[in-house]
Amino acid sequence: MPTNPAEIAEPAPYAVPNYLEEHYWWAYVHPNAVRVFERQWLVNSILWGNFRRLRDAALDVLGRPIQGRTLQVACVYGDLTERLLARHAPDAQLDVVDILPVQLDNLARKLGPEPGLAMRQADSADLGIADGHYDQVLVFFLLHEQPLATRRRTIAEALRVTRPGGRLVFVDYHRPHPANPMRLVMHPVLRMLEPFALDLWREEITAWLPPWAPPVRVEKRTFFGGLYQLVVITREPQEADVGSGA
Ligand SMILES: C[S@@+](CC[C@H](N)C(=O)[O-])C[C@H]1O[C@@H](n2cnc3c(N)ncnc32)[C@H](O)[C@@H]1O
Questions:
Q1: Can you tell me the distance from the alpha carbon of 187 to that of 198, in angstroms, rounded to the nearest whole number?
Q2: How far apart (Å, rounded) are the C-alpha atoms in residues 162 and 112?
Q3: Ligand 1 atom closest to Cα of 75?
């Protein structure tokens, strides 16, 4: 379960996944990656100026204030976690997991100890957290980095740890509208740098829900001519919860 930030410097029990080692070593794994990429303007430029808009759209779904227990699956360069915490109700809890200690260390450095914040090393594909533990789960620009089998497991895990009635929020790439000229720019860029990202141009995120998925409600919004998407998957409350205010 979540530990406090001082404990995250322990030796890693997790191997770096192949796809990170092979395709994203320069962005996340290399010791210089944090020094290079931890710049708000750079993150915003990589998203063609859309970082704040996408961040705030996700935060608006989570609430104002954000109540209960929230899980952020994977760290992100920039101020997403900081803004999330700033919206927290006084008794709310935010847990952040990432598979790379270097990224957790960076987040701990950015934020310092904060009440209601815990960070721990975990694999999004095998969270090791109890079913239904969270009121909401946020997965921000992680799915496009993962090969299909891992992506499916990440989605299944995120859904499993979201309580009935809770919300699962994905922000990621999406197929641009046919008339969007960004198609011509982003297709070769993604094909070269992010080999799994174009899967999100071909399929809906819901195509990768697990076969055991409980009843859910799905809302999708797209941004920047369709290049980005926000998908909110709400688990239907269990019958026993209906009418109980849960
Ligand atoms: C959230 S994604 C990309 C976010 C976005 N491109 C950015 O940084 O602005 C990057 C993070 O995902 C983490 N990550 C990748 N695979 C993971 C996994 N299987 N489990 C947990 N974290 C993972 C990486 O370690 C990295 O910190």
A1: 8
A2: 27
A3: 27
Question: Ligand 1 pocket: which residues have CB below 6 Å?
Answer: 17, 20, 28, 43, 74-78, 97-100, 103, 123-125, 140-142, 145
Chain segment 5-26, per-residue pLDDT in tens: 444 444 547 999 999 999 999 9
Ligand 1 mean position to 65 CA, how many Å?
26
* pTM of the predicted model over 0.90: yes
Question: Following DSSP, what letter does each residue of the chain receive, concatenated?
Answer: --B-GGGGGSPPSSPPPHHHHHHSIIIIISTTHHHHH--HHHHHHHTTT-HHHHHHHHHHHH-SSB-SEEEEES--SSSHHHHHHHTB-TT-EEEEEES-HHHHHHHHHHH-S-TTEEEEE-BTTB----TT-EEEEEEES-GGGS-HHHHHHHHHHHHHTEEEEEEEEEEEE-PPPTT-THHHHHHHHHHHH-TTTTHHHHS-GGGGS-TTPPPEEEEEEEETTTTEEEEEEEEPPPGGGTTTT-
pLDDT band at 68 (very low <50, low <70, confident <90, very high): very high
User: Which fold, 5-241?
Assistant: Rossmann fold (3.40.50)
